[in-house]
Design goal:
Distance between the termini: 105 Å
Order of helices and strands: EEEEEE
Strand order of the largest sheet: 1-6-5
Number of helices: 0
Shape: elongated
């Protein structure tokens, strides 16, 4: 669960992204929507939050600054069994002999006979 740090009671607007900046203050930026780019962020209030490592800081539904522990690492995976390394012998490749190019026979074109007019 999240812990409330500072009670501000800010009213949230639709289509805005609220976050706690590196300086510990509350910032709001208009969100990008279809065909429209987002805008510049505006500083709302000086919350004066001192951030600790391993926590996520956010503005909750009531408009107060809250923090929650970040889950790190995800699900543990099984370790793969180590394979034995086998050295392979180096084999020298022989150069391939050049193949003879087959010559194509030139076909003679048949001359079409012209029909006589009657």
């Amino acid at each position: 669960m999240a812990q409330k740090i500072v009670k501000l009671g800010l009213k949230r607007e639709k289509n805005h992204l609220y976050y706690i900046g590196k300086d510990g203050n509350v910032w709001a930026a208009p969100m990008a929507r279809a065909g429209k780019k987002g805008g510049k962020a505006k500083k709302l209030t000086d919350a004066g939050v001192k951030k600790e490592k391993g926590f996520l800081y956010f503005l909750d539904k009531n408009g107060d600054v809250a923090k929650a522990t970040m889950s790190r690492g995800g699900k543990k995976r099984k370790k793969a069994a180590k394979k034995k390394v086998v050295k392979k012998k180096v084999v020298k490749k022989k150069k391939a002999a050049k193949k003879k190019v087959a010559k194509k026979k030139v076909a003679k074109k048949k001359v079409a006979k012209k029909k006589k007019k009657r």
